[in-house]
Each structure stands twice: as C-alpha cells, then as structure tokens.
Amino acid sequence: MEIWSLAYKDLREGLEKGQFSVTEVIKTYLTHLRLLDKKLNAFILIAENQALARAKELDAKLKRGDRLGSLFGLPLAIKDVITTKDLVTTAGSKILKNYQPSYNATVVEKILAADAIILGKTNCDEFAMGASGENSAFGATCNPWDLSRVPGGSSSGSAAAVAAGQTLVALGTDTGGSIRQPASFCGVVGLKPTYGRVSRYGLIAMASSFDQIGTITRQVAEAAQVLQVIAGFDERDATSQKIEVANYHTLFNQPIKKLCVGIPREFFGEGLAAGVAEQVNKAIAKLEELGVRTKEVSLSTIPYALATYYIITPAEVSANLARFDGLRFGQNHWSNKLIDYYKETRGEFLGSEVKRRIILGTYVLSAGYYDAYYKKALTVRDSLKKDFARVFKEVDLLITPTSPTVAFKLGERLQDPLAMYLADIYTVPVNIAGLPAISVPCGVANNLPVGLQFIGPAWSESLLLQAAYTYEQVRGEFNLPKV
C-alpha cells in the first residue's frame, strides 16, 4: 500500500515503529501531489522546501525520544484564505497575488505546535465566494472523480486534494457550505464546527458572522483528531467562545441506539435528484437498523434561508472587502485621480463574482433599501435560529442530503448565478444559525459521490462525530478515485 493512501493512525504507527521516516512520507506526498496537480490544479502554492525542512526537524525529534505532538508527521494543506507567515496567502485573488502575511492564523499556530506539516496552500474561489471552485484567479480546480466536473466550492482545492491523496488532511472554511458541499462532491468528510468553536483569527474574512474554519479529511476519526487541536477559545478573536473542548476521538465506541434523528421534510422535496435521494434514504435505513429512531420534522423557515443568506453575506462582504483597494493591501493600478485609481485597481484585480457581491451588499445597505432587505433578512435569521432550537427539543440530530445534486459540469452554471447559488441550498441554513454539521460520503449516483449531512445543536460536535463515525463503520468501504 502506498504511503499516501494510509489512514493517519496507520501512518503514525509506521512512523513510531520506524517503518519509514517523516522525510520519506513528505517526499512521497510531494511527488504524488505534483504529479496529480497538473490535472487537478488543487494547489496555488506547494511548500516543498519548508515541508522537507520541517520533516527533517520532526525526524530528529523522534530520534531524540522527545514527546510527539498529537498530529506528529501529519501531511496537511491549508485553504489559501488562512494566513501563513512563511507562505504567500492570496485568497484566490489577483489583488493578493504576492501578499506575504506577517503572522500565522491561530489554527496554523496550533497545527504546527501539534507537529503537523504544511504541504502547501490550496486553491479556492476568490475570497471564498463560489460554489464550484471556478472563481479562482489561478484557474479552476477539477474534481478527481471526473475531471470535467467541479469539485464544489469554495474549499475546492482542499476537498479535491484530500480525495486525490495529495494531502491526508486539509483545512477549509465554511461560510454557507464551503467545506461540506465540496466534501460531498469529492467523496470525503467535511466538518463545519459551531460558530465560535474554532478561532477565526488570521482568516481573511468574507462574511464575519458566518465564516468558520473546519476540516476536510478521508475519515471521521481524522476530523476528530484535527478538531481536537484547532478548537478552543482565542482571546485574539472576539467571536471565539469559552466552551469546553471535549476529547473527541475517545467518544467513538459509545452506542447511539438511543439517538433520535430528525428528517426535515423541506430537504426532501422538489429539486432533490433521484439518485441522491436514493443513497441518502439507504443511509437512513442503515442507521435505523442500528436502533436509531427517526422522526419526520419540519423547519418552516427553510424556504427563506437562501434569500436571507444572499442578503446578509453580501452586506458583510461589501464591508470586509473595502480594505482590498491596493492602498492598504494588494496590487494596484496607479492613477493620478483617486476615483480612477479605485476603478482601475478593483476593476483589474477583482473577479466578477466578488464585484457582484460587493455591489449587491452595498445596495442592500444603502439608504432606502436597508429596512426593505437587510433588516428583514436579520429578522428571518433570528426566526430560523428559533426554528432549529424548537426542532432540537424533539430530536438529537438532523439528517439531510448535503447537496441536492452530485457534482455538475465545469462551466455549466457560470453564466447563471442563481443556479450556482442553489448548490448550497441544503448547507446555508446551518451557517445562518451558527450550528455544527458534518458531511460524510454515503454512496455513489451516476458514478459520482453523494454526501450525507448530520446537523446538530450548538456545541454538539461530540455527538455529531460519534453519529458520523458509527454510520461510517456500517456504510462499508468507500473507495476514493484513482485520478
């Protein structure tokens, strides 16, 4: 078996037994990464020199008999909206093509302290705005299951890289489904923690009240191990919460027979592809065989979630991206007139989807429209939170499809923004309410993977991971693509 195909527990065991060195592991991954990236374009930057230097340090640490971090030798990639001190961070945009941050994001500090190794920065939709991976200034990422299809977005490179074995784990960000939807399209595990569970310090913000850093992995156990490291309060992040972090990876052997899972009818209606529905229903049946009780529930505000999301998030985008003007950050196009300077700089270095959302956000915040759109959307957001809270008094978790369809063709929805936005229809309600959710592969339809989404109440990551892990064990082997 190739080193790059090993689960982390087997990789770690091999390192500790001396079956191979950290340097051998990283060299194998880098070779595999470079070979496949000619097809996938999953990476914006490959940190070969830094990764090999760190591998050498960790080999020396192992040889000395020093205490090893919980992620010792783990090959890991970082979505390129998360700042890295020694690596250029572009957010998938031309305006930040040469931006070198002066600090590491908190999650980067934590994974390095746990002895993980960063292989590089993964491709993404520009400033995390997109559902397909086609909005990057550095070219679209391809789905390793079918190179003619999208990998999902905006964490496109992270999902494709994990699915193809270019990295064992990747960090992504989830504003409206940007971890879970690409995880579904690429047949891997995508975990979006509760808003405030993981520090956002060092994340280039898209929509500050929605953005959350999470993980993309091959197995649920690996998601638990990485979350264990990156979760926790951070005084540098005002949205970070002082909530106890459980020992997630020790909870997997607990039974889930007494679990009651809600099936929201709004997620199983018009627009759900037949093949996706079939695989999700099979997964639900497997859980019922384990003794899990299921109950049909209703979330009456769900039909308004997508419209609410695309009013509030552009409003926050318009404020957050004001700093990217070529004066404070990024490249510029010089002009003697200030208005021309702004027009030419932002016109040349920002992509069409980013401009669309800035304009839309500025519109809904403007005088005469604030009350009509933005204020009403905030009211609906509050109603959606209450709707979820009501349902979670009846059930422990919810199960839904992650996406209404499997991965669609590259270019298929680029000229139809509304069709593109509908790709996130089953994921955005979670972000609006600030809840945790996880997508796990549950089968294949039309030779493409289907994702099953578990949604939990706030701070229920332990239960989510336990349920997802239990399903993963009864689902059977799920083979990743051979690119």
Can you walk me through this structure?
With 483 residues, this protein is of the alpha/beta class. It has 15 helices and eleven strands. The protein has helices at 8-16, 22-40, 48-64, 106-113, 156-164, 180-186, 220-230, 274-289, 305-320, 338-349, 352-365, 370-391, 417-421, 428-433, 461-475; strands at 43-46, 75-79, 117-122, 169-174, 189-192, 212-217, 260-264, 293-297, 397-401, 437-445, 448-455. Strands 1-3-2-4-6-5-10-11-9-7-8 form an eleven-stranded mixed sheet, with helices on both faces. Helix 2 (22-40) runs antiparallel to helix 3. The longest helix is centred in the C-terminal third of the chain and has 22 residues, at 370-391. The protein is globular, with a radius of gyration of 21 Å. The model has no long low-confidence stretch (mean pLDDT 95).
